[in-house]
Write a structure and sequence with these properties.
Rhopdopsin 7-helix transmembrane proteins, mainly alpha, Arc Repressor Mutant, subunit A, elongated, about 350 residues
Length: about 350
């Protein structure tokens, strides 16, 4: 082995070794005992075995078929463990324990049966490429399922109005890390086969840094997330939405420049996270967007009524804290500035 080979082996294998240690910790020693810890341990174990197989196969092409098949078995579990882990964190009150048992048993029975009937060593032409492609497409399928499960989190990220909390950053990192590793293996023919192992080492230490520098480490791994942990019936969501509309239309709550999610939830006598979930999941918007729509509509009505207020005064009267906030939100929602809207209104061009 050259020095280059030694360094490549060391850094690519380091992640797999530490991943195995972490998987043992989460599977057997982490406290409090929670299903999410077991699923995270399973995810790390599957990834570590898959990565470890890649590292050894890169340097030992004559590696026993038993090890090669074990690595592919592990690969078949990566997607399910990731999807179930995300489910267990976002919906801790769901029946995840029973669901995970049946889910993983079905996955194990399927790939175990294929391996028993068609062992890799005697059916190389079947495994390469057909069964291996099946494994990667199955992993991709779970990445897609995980993406849709994480949609509320991505909405918060893309909205830019609300900041991601530590739990959301953690879950997005897990998802993106898995996506990058999948891509590295699936497109290995266009690059380096060992890239997946390097990426795993990189993301493993990135996750460790996220945990190390987070003051609320347990909130990432154990805490029930209040933001998405309940499934709200459509009828209940509609009732709460109607009550919120009434607060805006009858009490003109949007005119309060200090209005926030906390105050609105208090008026409705529901938890803050429940109102946020209803707005995101059932109306497809953040609380700030919802309130600003009322404020902009009110501002347009004041312009039509020719109240004598200046544009800046109209903004303050409708609940905006500053002139710049009023102008930026008005243009965002109408594609016009307040002054151009007012001019068009006077010419009879705007309804």
């Amino acid at each position: 082995m050259t020095l280059h080979d030694v360094l490549v082996f060391f850094f690519s294998g380091l992640g797999a070794f530490n991943g195995l240690l972490l998987s043992v910790y989460f599977l057997f020693f982490s406290r409090p005992k929670h299903v999410s810890n077991l699923l995270l341990g399973g995810l790390l174990l599957s990834l570590s075995i898959r990565i470890g197989k890649s590292v050894f196969f890169h340097f030992l092409p004559d590696l026993s078929f038993h090890y090669l098949q074990l690595g592919l078995y592990a690969c078949f579990f990566i997607g399910p463990f990731m999807y179930l882990y995300i489910q267990s964190i976002l919906y801790p009150e769901g029946k995840i324990v029973q669901s995970a048992k049946w889910h993983l048993m079905a996955v194990g029975l399927f790939i175990g049966t294929i391996g028993a009937i068609y062992p890799f060593e005697r059916h190389i032409a079947l495994w390469r490429p057909h069964i291996i492609n099946l494994i990667y497409f199955q992993w991709l399928g779970y990445l897609v399922l995980s993406f849709f499960t994480l949609r509320p989190v991505f909405k918060v990220f893309l909205d830019k109005k609300d900041k991601l909390n530590s739990l959301e950053i953690w879950l997005i990192s897990i998802f993106l890390g898995n996506t990058a590793i999948w891509a590295a293996y699936y497109f290995a023919g266009y690059g380096s086969y060992i890239l997946g192992a390097f990426l795993f080492s990189f993301f493993l230490y990135l996750f460790a840094l996220i945990l190390f520098f987070n003051k609320k480490k347990k909130s990432i791994l154990f805490k029930e997330n209040p933001k998405y942990n309940i499934l709200i019936e459509e009828s209940e969501a509609e009732g709460i939405t109607l009550r919120l509309h009434a607060l805006m239309q009858e009490e003109l709550l949007y005119k309060d420049p200090q209005l926030g999610l906390e105050l609105a939830a208090e008026k409705l006598s529901i938890p803050r996270h429940k109102l946020s979930q209803i707005l995101n999941a059932h109306l497809g918007k953040s609380f700030s967007t919802y309130v600003n729509e009322y404020r902009i509509d009110a501002a347009k009505e004041m312009m039509k009524a020719e109240t004598g207020f200046s544009l800046e005064g109209i903004g303050y009267e409708c609940g905006f804290k500053s002139k710049s906030t009023f102008y930026s939100n008005f243009k965002k929602m109408t594609s016009q500035t307040p002054s151009s809207y007012q001019k068009a209104l006077k010419k009879g061009l705007t309804l």
